[in-house]
Queue: 2 jobs
Job 1
Amino acid sequence: MTSDATETLSARLDRHADRIFERMIAWRRDFHANPELGNQEHRTAGIVAEHLERLGFDEVRRNLGGSTGVIGILKGGQPGPCVALRADMDALPVREATGLDFASVKTADWGGETVPVMHACGHDAHTAVQMAVAEILATERDAIKGSVMLVFQPAEEGPAPDWQGLSGAERMVADGAFDDPKPDAFFCFHVLQDERPGTAGEIRVHEGDGTYAMNLMRIKIHGRGGHGAYPWRTVDPLLIGAQILTALQAIPAKNVDVNENAVTLSIGIFKGGTKFNVIPETAEMEGALRFTDGESGPYLESRVEAVAKGIAEAAGGRAEVDWYMRVPLVHNDPELLRRMRPSLERAAPADKPVVDVESCFLDDVSNFSSIAPLVFFTVGVGLDTDDPARSGFHHEPSFQVNEAGLATALRAMVNLAVDYGYDSARNDG
Ligand SMILES: [Zn+2]
Ligand SMILES: [Zn+2]
């Protein structure tokens, strides 16, 4: 190849991206046809880890985040910082109705129940793109300044109902997955199906804080079971639960300055009991606390616990509150975003410049902000006007990904991984 000697690094990266595109789509379709639920991504993680080992990554760590997480570390040919990229691997308990020839027909166990499984959020695309990034970086490792850490994370969408303890990004942080080496920056993208035709490949990014934070709770109420005809011999956990559920609504209404913090508290699961004439021993509820003031989490949690425990004790029972997942605000570091903006702009299609938006949806990648500055952006995967089938939104059975948009995602992630070292080297000098 006579052009190689004079070709610039960024031109080479673009050429690698074009060349790997078809294989990346094949990986994506394979993951799509074989989706796996949170903390069960064994097949996916196995494919990812073998791929990184085959590429000669210096280190490949498996079974992270309490389950299937994989981290691959590639040392570049020149000294420099450590940059981390994240892809999530999990699918959702949704029955696919896209009619695609690689549609999922898989089922899996989800807290003791058999459920259909579908990549209805696009994490199949995230994983495939990051595998392609891995291959391009391995090919160009001599040109890389510093090291690249590729993070393949389990359970972004939360754990199964019977999962114990933390999971996902929060668990990886708690387990010390980023202690050595400690990344200097995190980059992450999410596909965005916004249902406007012609948005494939459009990059959108916000500066500062995203919409809201979310803390997930599980409340277990212990009473004393017995005969429904003799309630005075029992402590009814369902009645306690009903009172807790109602009383919790007073927290956003009465404990929060509505000028500074928008708070919602929703219970999505309330279960207990087996028969009409048996008062059960226990009842359980699960719900989400969402809030726009990222600092207010501990206070809101303490209010929930005081209300739940106080009501249960007043009735002669007991309540336990378990916070099993915390998703902070997605904070896009303004300084890092400003510095890396040219890398995003170079990846964007000529007719679709980078769009600045006010905010973004939640993603548990926000937990990585406690380690290093983060930039999270979306890449459009809206279907084109002449596509016959309409796609649903994320988490809907008809959700689809316009694969043409993934070319932008790939270029953006490769640029960020490579450029970060060069920019840092310039700053250091
Ligand atoms: Zn999702
Ligand atoms: Zn998602």
Job 2
Amino acid sequence: MTEGHRIADILSAYRTEGRVLPQEEIVAMLREIQGVLGWIPQGVREKAAEAAGVKSTTVDAIIRLYPSLKPAPYRHQITVCQGRNCGPNGGNALRQEVENMLRPDRDGISADRQFLVKSVSCMKKCRSGPNLEIDGEVFAAVRPGDGERIIREIMKKEGMKQ
Ligand code: FES
């Protein structure tokens, strides 16, 4: 059975005719969808909302409430600056450190599919480099081992396998 058929089966199993599906059942449906796809894409979220008799913003809010539900194929975005000033001063080594730890694929998605790893050529904070950004938070003057330590802290906090 294709992924599309499996998703259609899940949606029809939870579909309510006219009544609103209780939140715990919406969560159960989303978990099943994630079990098939590894995450819950926007288009599927809309279909899930329709099946549950709620607005898609309600489904989005539920996903935000449950950190184990993933609205993207990864949970955290890591950006390493490998620009002219950061790269030779530790940024390139930092990228290697992050890669060794998370083993991203060609698209930058880590082996555990929890992180997106990217590089940029300048964050416009050259004076404080080498710089690392995780989910919008910038870590300045990163030293060897800092990248791994910060990522391990995130993993620990969220109960991810290390
Ligand atoms: S080169 Fe890294 S912030 Fe400019």
